[in-house]
Write a structure and sequence with these properties.
This protein has four helices and seven strands; from the N terminus they run H-E-H-H-E-E-E-E-E-E-H. It is an alpha+beta fold and 149 residues long. The strands form two sheets. Strands 1-2-3-4 form a four-stranded antiparallel sheet, with helices on both faces. A three-stranded antiparallel sheet has the order 5-6-7, covered by helices on one side. The longest helix is centred in the last third of the chain and has 18 residues.
Length: 149
């Protein structure tokens, strides 16, 4: 087993551990992707601000099950507990933007109930990560088709 396979296995295990007790009967994890979010307008400021940009960056697991989307906040240091911030059915999430760049994918998801937005960025590290984020965008758009908001 190579390094990339071990990293993906560890990612799946950490996400499954964070969701212990939260999954409903018959619900199973379909995909897990690791990404980050930053305040808007911070592109390029890393070079100017340097290490202070690390404090503004939040890290996430985007977890899709067969019924819901989970946004799991992860700490900057490994080995600590994670926090489930969103656990919403697909129809309660709207996709404001999805873009595949050369190095990053952007998925802006909005919770319909309160309008909270997470600007999720995932690195295009391989076809698996790209497919997972693209699948999340597709599922969420299909679930919202014909619904207001």
């Amino acid at each position: 087993m190579g390094l990339r396979e071990r990293q993906l296995r560890n990612l799946d295990q950490r996400a499954a551990k964070a969701l212990e007790g939260l999954l409903e009967p018959g619900e199973a994890i379909a995909s897990v992707t690791f990404g980050q979010s930053r305040p808007r307008g911070w592109i390029g400021l890393d070079a100017i601000i340097g290490v202070f940009a690390l404090f503004a960056t939040k890290y996430w697991y985007l977890v899709l099950t067969n019924r819901r989307l989970f946004m799991v906040r992860t700490p900057k240091t490994p080995g600590r507990a994670t926090e489930v911030v969103w656990a919403e059915p697909f129809s309660a999430i709207a996709v404001d933007r999805f873009k595949r760049g050369r190095l990053w994918m952007l998925l802006y998801v909005r919770r319909v109930s309160d309008g909270q937005v997470i600007r999720y960025r995932a690195q295009r590290t391989g076809p698996g990560a790209t497919a997972n984020v693209a699948e999340a965008a597709r599922l969420l758009r299909e679930a919202r088709a014909g619904l207001p908001g």
